[in-house]
């Protein structure tokens, strides 16, 4: 269909005759003129279409909120604001929109919109969210490409169960009532002849690639059967996982900080209208926050230091903290929002609360892990230097009663030319939340999947 994108129509220097298509976002009229706001998704700003009612009568169906129309007209400098208006010469209805269209001016709370995921993208909020999301995704590939990382794709169906014992979705083709005398027989009869599931992380395979290609990253979905119904967890989320050879924990931290700053700068630069919108309607001060974060140093503190700080505040927490306890969201938020007031890397966690593959520190108690905590969200990145010593890795796995045979390939990486290496996982949706101020992860995802919800 020959037409001009509204983004181009708004910016065109040449005041020419054009055809545009879009959905009616608002309509108002007076005795002599009528005004339409038209959106085709190509820009956050809408195109104002002006109708001289003495010269042109418009079919009532074209004036309905949500109706799809094609308009021919002449571009003129905008009466108000920047860009152009369109003086309409003719209208054509592409698709009518009856009055039960659920996106009316009132009623549009985020909760209400969650019930109509197929239509909520027609609102300003979701248009802005998904533009930011797209810009950030492109920037991720640009960053890694510019820094010499290879983009690799790790399998989504896996037989190894990286850390997520209870958190893995099973993949099966067995009928619900498949008869089997034992668990072993049940899985032997299944599609892969063994128990399989959806991957919770591409890290283990990422390490395979990094210990040959040097610097790699993955950017794809991870699946977690998280039974926690929080505003930060989905059953299916997008995961950015760089993995780097010849890297120690400080290198991992440096990479994480540099990537985040690059992404934030890209969003600040390429999503100005969207950020202005979020700053006005979602999180006051958002642009200042992001500008500041993009240019100032992130804080770093050890888990032990963090626990010293938190223990003094135990009275305020639902779960009091002591050395050895996992940090809960309330603790993470307190650290980043009240103590450091900026993103903070917490490092060197007790080995008991972290995964088997993390590098064991010389103190015998902690591992070279780091979580990046940010205000408003808590953990946005989890990473570590990986254990590169064969014997230490085996002993950590034995302590956890793991099945060594299932990890033969992973252990081989420590046997044949082992090198210090590390990486991290960044939750893409959590990053988009941070950049937009949107507080519920369900509102930065097209069709969010979570416990008891798969609309
Ligand atoms: P949390 O403690 O918040 O549950 P985690 O420690 O389980 O996260 P990691 O295994 O370290 O998370 O995963 C790396 C990153 O992936 C996290 O920092 C987070 O940004 C993101 N992430 C993890 N689980 C989810 C989820 N269920 N939904 C959305 N993002 C997630
Ligand atoms: Mn983590």
Helix and strand run: HEEEEEHHEEHEHEEHHHEHHEEEHHEH
**The CATH class of the largest domain:** Alpha Beta
Tell me the name of the CATH homologous superfamily of the largest domain: Bira Bifunctional Protein, Domain 2
Q: Which structural class do you get from the secondary structure elements?
A: alpha+beta
Count of the domains:
2
* Sequence stretches where pLDDT stays below 50 over 5 or more residues: none
The geometry reads as elongated
Beta-strand residue fraction: 15-25%
Gyration radius, in Å: 26 Å
Give short descriptive properties of this protein.
455 residues; alpha+beta; OB fold (Dihydrolipoamide Acetyltransferase, E2P); BirA Bifunctional Protein, domain 2; 2 domains; 8-stranded mixed β-sheet; 5-stranded mixed beta barrel; 13 helices; 15 strands; 31% helix; 24% strand; binds adenosine-5'-triphosphate; binds manganese (II) ion
In brief:
By secondary structure, the chain is α+β, with helices and mostly antiparallel strands. The protein is built from 13 helices and 15 strands. A hairpin with a 7-residue loop joins strand 2 and strand 3.
């Amino acid at each position: 269909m020959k037409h001009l994108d509204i983004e181009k129509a708004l910016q065109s220097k040449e005041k020419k005759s054009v055809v545009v298509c879009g959905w009616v976002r608002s309509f108002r009229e007076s005795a002599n003129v009528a005004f339409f706001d038209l959106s085709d998704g190509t820009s956050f700003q809408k195109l104002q279409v002006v109708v001289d009612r003495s010269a042109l009568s418009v079919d009532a169906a074209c004036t309905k909120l949500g109706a799809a129309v094609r308009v021919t007209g002449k571009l003129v400098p905008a009466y108000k604001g920047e860009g152009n208006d369109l003086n309409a010469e003719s209208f054509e209805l592409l698709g009518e929109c009856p009055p039960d269209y659920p996106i009316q001016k009132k009623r549009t709370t985020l909760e209400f919109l969650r019930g109509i995921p197929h239509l909520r993208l027609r609102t300003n909020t979701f248009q802005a969210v998904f533009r930011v999301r797209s810009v950030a995704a492109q920037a991720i590939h640009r960053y890694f490409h510019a820094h010499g990382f290879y983009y690799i794709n790790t399998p989504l169906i896996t037989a190894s169960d990286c850390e997520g014992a209870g958190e893995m979705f099973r993949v099966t083709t067995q009928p619900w009532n498949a008869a089997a005398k034992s668990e072993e027989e049940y899985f032997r009869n299944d599609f892969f002849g063994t128990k399989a599931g959806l991957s919770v992380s591409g890290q283990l395979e990422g390490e395979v690639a990094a210990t040959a290609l040097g610097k790699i990253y993955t950017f794809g979905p991870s699946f977690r059967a998280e039974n926690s119904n929080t505003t930060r967890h989905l059953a299916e989320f997008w995961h950015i996982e760089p993995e780097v050879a010849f890297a120690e924990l400080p290198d991992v931290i440096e990479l994480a900080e540099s990537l985040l700053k690059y992404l934030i700068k890209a969003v600040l630069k390429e999503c100005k209208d969207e950020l202005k919108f979020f700053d006005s309607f979602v999180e006051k001060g958002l642009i200042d926050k992001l500008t500041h974060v993009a240019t100032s140093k992130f804080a770093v503190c050890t888990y032990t230091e963090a626990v010293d700080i938190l223990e003094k505040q135990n009275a305020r927490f639902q779960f009091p903290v002591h050395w050895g306890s996992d940090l809960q969201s309330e603790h993470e938020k307190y650290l980043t929002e009240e103590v450091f007031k900026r993103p903070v890397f917490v490092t060197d966690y007790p080995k008991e609360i972290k995964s088997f593959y993390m590098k064991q520190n010389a103190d015998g108690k902690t591992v070279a892990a780091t979580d990046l905590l940010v205000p408003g969200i808590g953990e946005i990145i989890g990473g570590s230097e990986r254990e590169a010593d064969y014997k230490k890795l085996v002993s950590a796995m034995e302590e956890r009663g793991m099945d060594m045979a299932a990890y033969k390939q992973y252990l081989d990486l420590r046997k044949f030319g082992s090198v210090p290496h590390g990486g991290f996982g960044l939750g893409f949706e959590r990053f988009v939340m941070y950049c937009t101020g949107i507080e519920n992860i369900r509102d930065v995802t097209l069709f969010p999947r979570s416990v008891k919800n798969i609309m």
